[in-house]
Structure to design on (630 residues):
């Protein structure tokens, strides 16, 4: 079997991973027992999972082991951001990694965990033919109502937390053998979950929010359908080096898309927290079938990628 | 690619899965948003994950899709049982399942979920070459301290919640083309997490507990090491149709192993709840290097299976 760890017994590996995770705070129990024990804040809990599959979401030729670990946690944290939440804890099920690769993957996971304040409290290791990194995250909104996809109303203004298309542009450069030190390549390899931005948008009373994992066009359609509204876009903010098609359909940008009721302004609170000012891109309208960009029909680009198959790297 | 869903678009599939999950209670949000929103009881939370990998933990030749789904949730619930907890919610990341197979797998997952009172609140679907079903579970001990592996003390008596070796015996029969309707085969395909037993043991003041996933010999060694004690076994309860070797080293029985301080009795509370009387199998001793069965050295059987590779079906 390829991808099967061949050196180190399980106990040694698990002790090494426990070292990378660090010690838990008092009252908590992390890796080493049947389940982790974690603190429990007031309010509802957020709970989500996402898997990264070799050959579907990443290739080892274009991403380092650390990048893969980072991305596996980051795309899960992005789901918490999209609810207006912050992370509490994550567990990592790692299948098909060679024993020699575990350190690199875990360094990526714990690097993202430290940056975003998420405890990695446990996991599972298994043989497999191909590498699959599945993370589950637990989060909280600290008592605030979570921001769902379904709360958008006609007249609400639409914002994104940054320009789009970096990840797709970075993947294009990597496939062409270019751009190792390019910013778009960095964003492709190490997406940045917008946790601070998601919390700020929630505090401002965002009516609907999601993270842009499959491309603005497709994710916007999801928000509009869930909210029962239409969309008129006035602009698509395109990241440096990306095309408008990449911004609309590339996916994996992990910027947040959110709607604000009339009269709410985002710039002040975001600036006060040192966050980039959200970019206004359009408005929700009552005609639920409407999808326009600058008055013309909006193409439904983007990838239904989890069931589409055949792409060498997720985008 | 094999294992890639080829029919049905993602939206249709996800709507179908949402139907199988059923509606959430008021205030909760299940599949369909970026993360699930679940109720949050008092006390610490339990959080765990386990992956089932095709060719490592199951083969489709010997288990139905429903069996695979059942087992994926059941082995996670068993980890909660082993802490003395009860389940709150689960998320399921399903990689490499054909669209036509999703219903069967989800029926197995939801069957176990209904039987054990665990809400399946979300998940992820992805292409992959081989099937990997990764479940993460969230649980609670309702304010009781969780029962760790590390609390066993010399003089504590050791119990298991049932006779052992069924799963290994069932796998042996299946490989020989026998025993489709055999009880051992049923236990191999559909392990029963001992949630009621785990709660009862916790209420009785169990000092240490774990679930027998890798064989009594190996799991007992884990409990002893974590607790810093030795073990003297007086008996190994062997399930009907199984050998003592299968009981000691077979694994995947998912019975619970727990220790009780002197003077505590398990039979009364278990009987009052309609649970089988736990079987006393030995005692913890102060010599941490001691591992005996009926006075003779206990062989360290069992499988360090997540890093061992090469077994056609997990055991």
């Amino acid at each position: 079997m390829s991808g099967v760890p061949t050196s180190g017994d399980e106990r040694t590996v698990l002790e090494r991973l426990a070292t990378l995770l660090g010690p838990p705070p008092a009252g908590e129990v992390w890796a080493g027992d049947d389940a982790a024990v974690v603190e429990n804040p007031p309010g509802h809990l957020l709970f989500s999972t996402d898997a990264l599959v070799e050959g579907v979401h990443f290739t080892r030729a274009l991403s380092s082991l650390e990048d893969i670990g980072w991305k596996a946690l980051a795309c899960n944290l992005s789901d918490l951001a999209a609810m207006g939440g912050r992370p509490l804890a994550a567990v990592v099920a790692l299948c098909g990694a060679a024993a020699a690769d575990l350190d690199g993957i875990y360094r990526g996971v714990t690097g993202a965990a430290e940056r975003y304040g998420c405890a990695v409290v446990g996991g599972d290791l298994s043989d497999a033919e191909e590498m699959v990194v599945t993370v589950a995250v637990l989060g909280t909104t600290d008592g605030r109502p979570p921001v769902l996809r379904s709360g958008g109303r006609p007249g609400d203004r639409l914002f994104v937390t940054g320009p789009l298309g970096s990840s797709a542009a970075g993947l294009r450069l990597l496939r062409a053998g270019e751009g190792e030190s390019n910013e778009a390549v960095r964003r492709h390899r190490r997406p940045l979950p917008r946790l601070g931005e998601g919390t700020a948008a929630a505090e401002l009373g965002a009516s609907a929010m999601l993270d842009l994992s499959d491309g603005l066009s497709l994710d916007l359609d999801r928000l509009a359908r869930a909210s029962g509204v239409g969309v008129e876009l006035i602009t698509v903010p395109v990241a440096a080096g990306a095309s408008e098609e990449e911004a609309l359909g590339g996916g994996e940008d992990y910027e947040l898309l959110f709607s604000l009721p009339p009269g709410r302004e985002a710039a002040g609170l975001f600036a006060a927290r040192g966050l980039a000012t959200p970019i206004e891109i359009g408005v929700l309208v009552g005609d639920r079938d409407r999808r326009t960009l600058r008055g013309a029909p909006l193409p439904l680009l983007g990838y239904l990628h989890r069931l589409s198959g055949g792409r060498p790297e997720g985008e």
